[in-house]
Amino acid sequence: MTMKKRPRKRRFGERWWSGLWIKALESFGWETRLRRGKNYALNGHVLKINVEPGIITALVQGTRPDPYQVEIHLHVIPLKEWRRIVYIMAQRASFTAKLLAGEMPQNIEKAFEQARAPLLPREEKDFVASCSCPDHVNPCKHIAAVHYIAADEFDHDPFMIFKLRGMSKENLLEALRERRGGGRFGAQEKSGQTALPADPELFWRTGPRLYEFWVSIQPPEVETAVLKRLGKPRFWREAATFEKIMSDVYRKTTEKALELAAHEPAEEEED
């Protein structure tokens, strides 16, 4: 991704997950270097940045005409450990709901800690960075600037962090869906569900355990989760914004459902 060279007027690490990235860097004792790098980032010296599994590459404009090439390497979490992480994530419905809606769940780090594979760097040695500039101190201000711009990218797309650690957004969401659904094939048999009766009379009978059925109406953990996940349909041709219209519909539907759920019907008088 190429970036226009322009001053930035906001701070880096605005979201909690990118803030943890900045906090980790600041814990390594790089205060002076980070301060100079932050100024470079704020003033648009990072011309291009790309995040791939295990590596961040960037071009940073310094005092010389040609920009410097920066590489930051970070350990990729092995696939075996990712399977364990996905399994732990899938146990929390809120994690899955938020991720499928394109949002980063709060306390997602705990899933990685439980799998003994931290999501964010914890020690200086976790990074292996290089820059083509003549400064032999690591991190130089150019590397530090890329760290801040990386946090900026994580702000806009939290899945970039997962990609850096070796798991693409598409593969992560597919793995979560499969895990939550019990697998693509044979899910019904494995879950122990009983097949529905073919006889129409038996089908429409309530059965003796109807009294055990209950419903709890609660606001969704993630607002407009389906809308955020699926996006605008291809058939939409109206000038009005599809997301705004449907968000209003979702909101009003939720409000009405909660209103009806809160209404207690009057008790019937005994004869």
Task: Give a structural overview.
By secondary structure, the protein is an alpha+beta fold. The protein has two domains: 16-176, no CATH class; 214-262. 44% of the residues lie in helices and 9% in strands. It is built from twelve helices and four strands; from the N terminus they run H-H-E-E-E-H-H-H-E-H-H-H-H-H-H-H. It has helices spanning 16-26, 31-42, 79-90, 93-100, 109-114, 141-156, 159-164, 169-181, 187-191, 200-203, 225-230, 242-262; strands at 46-52, 55-60, 68-74, 127-131. Strands 1-2-3-4 form a four-stranded antiparallel beta sheet. A hairpin with a 2-residue loop joins strand 1 and strand 2 (55-60). The protein starts with 15 loop residues before the first helix and ends in a 9-residue tail after the last helix.
List keywords for this structure.
elongated, 4-stranded antiparallel β-sheet, 12 helices, disordered C terminus, alpha+beta, 9% strand, 271 residues
Which SSEs are present, and which pair or pack?
Layout: H1 16-26, H2 31-42, E1 46-52, E2 55-60, E3 68-74, H3 79-90, H4 93-100, H5 109-114, E4 127-131, H6 141-156, H7 159-164, H8 169-181, H9 187-191, H10 200-203, H11 225-230, H12 242-262
Antiparallel strand pairs: 1-2, 2-3, 3-4
Helix pairs in contact: 1-6, 2-6, 3-8
